[in-house]
């Protein structure tokens, strides 16, 4: 069987790796740069890590701070219009997935015609044709893996959609855990479980390969070992480093193997209730995995072991049950509500969520258990009630 593996051209990881920024910028001979970030990061002073050294080197940096979390389409249209209006040689993204996703769209669509909307996966009519302006992506959360994936996610009225093309891959990713020290505990938890979900879903994906498996299992090891510490004590250097590298590996894994049911069901929750992407994934993770458990018992045993538990005396079935329980425990330990009720979602919303989730065909196709409309409703109901159920044979 042939296997296609795609990685972003250059990545730097590890504490202090941002020191490579200037040499990379010079490689592109960039004289005028757009820095896409969110206003909070500018207020925190994180943008100084980029702006000060580059301006000292005589490079012009225009800081664009109109990024909002879970960016709606209109914000995408705005940043692309701004990038088209000015002549930039390079776009740098600094922030969480929201800033990085907008950077990718800005870089590519600056050299295309039409609206951002025209390029959406579900409803778009235009195709991306060329690479656009080079991009350097610098994450400040340990979660989305956006710095090494080829997609940008945008919020629509009741759901989310992506723009996806290999031209959206960053030219350079710089994954420096030092930039995550200021992340508040609640965002550390949500983004950390997002990364864990990427690794878990990549590992059980129908499109998993030996390489994505290796990346996913190592990501699960690092994140499971360190997420609780990173949430409790954000200044713990080792925990932040593990989370940063873990989310990077999880990103590489899911970029190649894809994500599945958890994400397909999480998108409508994010779209309809404006709940952070990490939280929407976290609240569904144990229930989706419980529901599909029988279709991937062996793989769930591996996940259980990668989470740091011994399965020596357990059958595959026993270990897979325990895996679901430990995933639920992890979500609860980092203080994320583990039911939809906990996010003030009412039972009458479940049908609308189901109608939107079933449209995520590209993502659902990777689930080892085919998820029909009635399955999706059952999973939402189990997440609403907080009771793990499984598909009846
Ligand atoms: P985010 O970018 O929305 O940021 C969340 C909050 O954290 C913001 O208020 C931000 O200011 C703050 N923040 C970020 N870094 C900080 C730091 N170091 N210190 C203090 N505060 C900080 O959150 P996210 O979870 O990283 O990104 C979510 C977005 O990414 C969603 O739109 C989601 O759909 C998308 N996403 C994209 C991909 C992809 O591959 N492109 C994958 C998963 C999710």
How would you describe this protein?
The protein contains 15 helices and 8 strands. It is an alpha/beta fold and 393 residues long. The strands form 2 sheets. Strands 1-8-5-4-2-3 form a 6-stranded parallel β-sheet, sandwiched between helices. A hairpin with a 4-residue loop joins β6 and β7. α9 packs antiparallel against α10, α9 packs across α13 and α10 packs across α15. The two termini are 31 Å apart. Nicotinamide-adenine-dinucleotide binds next to α2, α5, β6, α6 and α10.
Overall number of strands = 8
* Biggest sheet character: 6 strands, parallel
- Overall 3D shape: globular
Strand content: 5-15%
Task: Describe the secondary structure blueprint for this structure.
Elements: E1 10-13, H1 21-27, E2 32-36, H2 39-44, H3 48-56, E3 60-64, H4 73-85, E4 90-95, H5 97-109, E5 135-139, E6 151-155, E7 160-164, E8 172-175, H6 185-204, H7 210-232, H8 237-257, H9 261-273, H10 277-292, H11 297-306, H12 316-333, H13 350-357, H14 361-364, H15 373-385
Parallel strand pairs: 1-8, 2-3, 2-4, 4-5, 5-8
Antiparallel strand pairs: 6-7
Helix pairs in contact: 4-5, 6-7, 6-8, 6-10, 7-8, 9-10, 9-13, 10-12, 10-15, 11-12, 13-15
The structure holds nicotinamide-adenine-dinucleotide.
């Amino acid at each position: 069987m042939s296997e296609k593996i795609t990685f972003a051209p250059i990545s730097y990881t590890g504490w202090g790796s941002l020191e490579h920024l200037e040499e990379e910028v010079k490689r592109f001979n960039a004289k005028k740069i757009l820095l896409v970030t969110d206003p909070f990061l500018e207020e925190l002073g994180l943008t100084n890590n980029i702006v000060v050294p580059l301006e000292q080197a005589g490079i012009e940096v225009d800081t664009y701070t109109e990024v909002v979390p879970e960016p709606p389409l209109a914000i995408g249209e705005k940043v692309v219009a701004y990038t088209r209006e000015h002549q930039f040689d390079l776009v740098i993204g600094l922030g969480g997935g929201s800033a990085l996703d907008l950077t990718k769209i800005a870089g590519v669509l600056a050299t295309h015609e039409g609206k951002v909307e025209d390029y959406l996966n579900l409803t778009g009519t235009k195709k991306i044709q060329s690479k656009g302006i080079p991009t350097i992506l610098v994450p400040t959360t340990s979660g989305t893996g956006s710095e090494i994936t080829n997609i940008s996610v945008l919020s629509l009225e009741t759901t989310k959609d992506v723009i996806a093309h290999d031209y959206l891959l960053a030219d350079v990713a710089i994954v420096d855990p030092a930039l995550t020290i200021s992340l508040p505990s609640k965002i550390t938890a949500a983004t950390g479980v997002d990364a864990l979900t990427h690794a878990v879903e990549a590992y059980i994906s129908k499109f998993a390969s030996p390489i994505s498996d290796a990346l996913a299992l190592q990501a699960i090891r690092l994140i499971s070992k360190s997420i609780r510490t990173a949430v409790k004590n954000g200044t713990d250097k080792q925990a932040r480093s593990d989370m940063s590298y873990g989310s990077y590996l999880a990103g590489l894994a899911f970029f190649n193997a894809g994500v599945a049911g958890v994400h397909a069901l999480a998108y409508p929750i994010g779209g309809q209730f404006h709940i952070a992407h990490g939280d929407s994934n976290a609240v569904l993770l144990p229930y989706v995995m419980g529901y599909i458990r029988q279709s991937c018992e062996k793989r769930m045993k591996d996940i259980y072991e990668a989470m740091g538990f011994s399965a020596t005396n357990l059958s595959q079935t026993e270990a897979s049950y325990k895996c679901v329980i430990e995933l639920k425990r992890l979500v609860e330990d980092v203080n994320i509500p583990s039911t939809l009720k906990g996010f003030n979602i009412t039972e009458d919303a479940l049908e609308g969520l189901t109608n939107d989730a079933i449209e995520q065909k590209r993502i659902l196709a990777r689930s080892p258990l085919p998820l029909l409309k009635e399955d999706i409703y059952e999973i939402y109901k189990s997440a609403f009630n907080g009771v793990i159920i499984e598909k009846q044979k």
